[in-house]
Amino acid sequence: MSTMQTVTTGLEFPEGPIALTNGDVLVVEIRRGTLTRVASDGRTSVVAQLGGGPNGAAIGPDGAVYVCNNGGFAWHDRPDGVTAPGHQAGDYIGGCIQRVELDTGHVTDLYTACDGRPLRGPNDIVFDADGGFWFTDLGKKRERDQDTGALYHARPDGSSITEVVHPLVEPNGVGLAPDGSRLYVAETGPGRLWAWDVTGPGQLGPRQLLHGFDGFQPLDSLAVDGEGNVCVATLMTGAVSVVAPDGTLLRQVPVPEHDPYVTNICFAGSGSRTAWVTSSGRGVLYATEWDTAGLDLAFTA
């Protein structure tokens, strides 16, 4: 594993990295409420103003960017220079799935509810080869209570949204095996990584515990590499943990400057070992050469 290189700094809690075919990387800035393009030289430009709390993001079959918007956090600036997300924001706008046109920045709210129940805190998203997408809803925390989480499957044309798994405890990262046969979800607080066999479009078999992390290691978003390993951002530890398809924890890859809010990773694709990691608490996007090649996602731009 090579040393992580700083691509850019000063981001406002970056998440949801997407590697574009031209070498740029898209990230959301949760605190800033934007979808932001990061060029290879580190220059940044705002693609779209999303408001609330844009979180996970993915390219859809139409080349648009689909964003999980958690509605917004309260924020805390710690004495050690780390930015930390907190409870539901005072100006919380509600959870939604947003569609963003890359060339114009036009934003559409695609889904705000399922079966009459409002989305609370959509978090991470992955498209399947059939053109649908899975997304998690972590929910929101308030001073005295918090929401129950769920896993959904939806179509990008706005025609269908289904709650597939409920309840889950703070479901965060979601990803698919290279052949699409398994779905993975990380639960934040419990530090558990779950797996399901995919039995059809939007359909899953029984839940299986892939790996439970020792100690206090909450989990964030994830990506699957070309060998089928689940690379899941591990909070407090400040690293990306690599879990084999059989559930073995292979290694943990820390960022250069400790950050308890390492939140996500993405890959450049199957022909490359380049990976990008969001160190959100410190506002940094890193690039590194990974031990394995990446995975081609269902759709790219």
List the helices and strands and how they pair.
Elements: E1 5-8, E2 14-19, E3 25-29, E4 34-38, E5 44-49, E6 54-59, E7 65-69, E8 73-77, E9 83-88, E10 96-100, E11 107-111, E12 113-114, E13 117-118, E14 122-127, E15 133-137, E16 149-154, E17 161-168, E18 171-176, E19 182-187, E20 192-200, E21 203-212, E22 219-224, E23 230-234, E24 239-243, E25 249-254, E26 262-267, E27 274-279, E28 284-289
Antiparallel strand pairs: 1-28, 2-3, 3-4, 4-5, 6-7, 7-10, 8-9, 10-11, 12-13, 14-15, 15-16, 16-17, 18-19, 19-20, 20-21, 22-23, 23-24, 24-25, 26-27, 27-28
Would you mind describing this structure in some detail?
The chain is mostly beta strands and 301 residues long. The chain has strands at 5-8, 14-19, 25-29, 34-38, 44-49, 54-59, 65-69, 73-77, 83-88, 96-100, 107-111, 113-114, 117-118, 122-127, 133-137, 149-154, 161-168, 171-176, 182-187, 192-200, 203-212, 219-224, 230-234, 239-243, 249-254, 262-267, 274-279, 284-289. The protein has a domain at 26-229: 6 Propeller (Neuraminidase). 0% of the residues lie in helices and 52% in strands. The strands form eight sheets. A four-stranded antiparallel β-sheet has the order 1-28-27-26, with no helix packed on it. A four-stranded antiparallel β-sheet has the order 2-3-4-5, with no helix packed on it. A four-stranded antiparallel β-sheet has the order 6-7-10-11, with no helix packed on it. The mean pLDDT is 98.
